[in-house]
Amino acid sequence: MDGHAGIYCPSVRQIADSTVRRLSLYLRFLEELDGRRTTTVSSEALARLGGTTSAQVRKDLSLFGSFGTRGLGYAVSDLIEVLRDILGLDREWRVAIVGAGKIGLALANYGGFRQRGFRVVAVYDNDPAKIGGLWDGHHVRDVATMAGDVARERPDIAVVTVPAGSAQATADIIVSSGIKGILNFAPVKLRVPAGVTVRAVSMATELELLSYALAQRGLGAKGQA
Amino acid sequence: MDGHAGIYCPSVRQIADSTVRRLSLYLRFLEELDGRRTTTVSSEALARLGGTTSAQVRKDLSLFGSFGTRGLGYAVSDLIEVLRDILGLDREWRVAIVGAGKIGLALANYGGFRQRGFRVVAVYDNDPAKIGGLWDGHHVRDVATMAGDVARERPDIAVVTVPAGSAQATADIIVSSGIKGILNFAPVKLRVPAGVTVRAVSMATELELLSYALAQRGLGAKGQA
DNA sequence: TGTTGTGAAGAGGTTCACAGCG
DNA sequence: CGCTGTGAACCTCTTCACAACA
Predict the structure, then answer these.
(1) N or C: chain B end with fewer CB closer than 10 Å?
(2) How far is A73 from chain B (nearest CA, A)?
(3) What does pTM read for this prediction?
(4) Residue B38 lies in a domain
(5) What is the pLDDT of residues A140-192, one digit of tens each?
(6) Which helix (H) or strand (E) element contains residue B159?
(7) Are B131 and B159 in the same domain?
(8) Which residues of B touch A118 (CB under 8 A)?
């Protein structure tokens, strides 16, 4: 055990999503800076990299503590450790992938996945054609057996990469098996009880936001045939 | 030409991302309701489906016009058409995929992609091993030839599914070739000139938001070994 | 009567500006 | 002197409450 989880308690109860999103961004920049042997960084420099303002950077960090040195800035390697701790990346997260399809595969093969401490411990599907087969080195199991496996393998997070139509039913199985975190790739809003956290990666929504932006842009100027 | 693009001009100049995101969600629910032959829906019902409030639904829609009937609600099929129009889904979007890998494949095979009017017109990569090969029915071309193709094939949107390290360079090529919309799957913040819209699908960030939420949750109660 | 559309009030996040320190 | 940390002002989005109306 590392025993230092929760050193950086926010003074305020609830931290905004937008803040955590930026912390995650800062961390990526800091790791890049660290790779270039940069030892110190100012809020101004971090802000430029992240497309925000120096005040925003300082405010974001100050919600969790005082990590900088006045007149100097932030020590890159220290801040990396702090942010990893805050974001919960100082430990391993055990992940079950539900839906042995292409999206899950893309995620599992995404370099940052393993590197950030996310480890696939089980893969499920409900398609008899897939069950028993191999998927990225894992045997695909029947989703019906999930609840029984959880006690043994203790996954922390379930990744839902099933079609929209079966996403809610899948989420229900996941919830009832006791998993408290869900990363949802299906283009539906999952309904879960309090105490379970859902995050959605919404390709459909982002595409539509893009479509909206482009359509708006076309109004004033050209409006292509 | 359909000629009715831009009927629904927002009274305010700038619509919030969060609003457009909800419109996209409403549209999905409306299509589901339409499939069940439901003809009318109240803001209250839409709100329940989308996890928001009726006032929010009405406010969101009222930014673009008055589409409901007092005492009755909204006509499902009419509202579907209105939202499709607002979101720019009443036309075809020509898409170039840059990075012939697994994520792009997952996206291209996602049902809603074609169905919502997004059509892949070209696939690029910079890996000589992939160039010339077949990818989901498309010949993979050298990304260096992109600028020349754009004049002929007029893609509206480029999907960036290359590794983080080459994402910015790829975006630069895309921008200089004249494409105005980018859907970015790489875990980096793309820097583009004004006039180009970027949307990011960030698996890394959402994973970290999930990790943060779970880590926080562990503090008060159990704090697993 | 039932539900929309909307001004006004409220909440929450961002920006400002400067005191506080190294 | 430079840069952080932070209360206060600002602004934007959300919620409320009710008039308007089919």
Answers:
(1) C
(2) 23
(3) 0.92
(4) yes
(5) 999 999 999 999 999 999 999 999 999 999 999 999 999 999 999 999 999 99
(6) strand B157-160
(7) yes
(8) 207
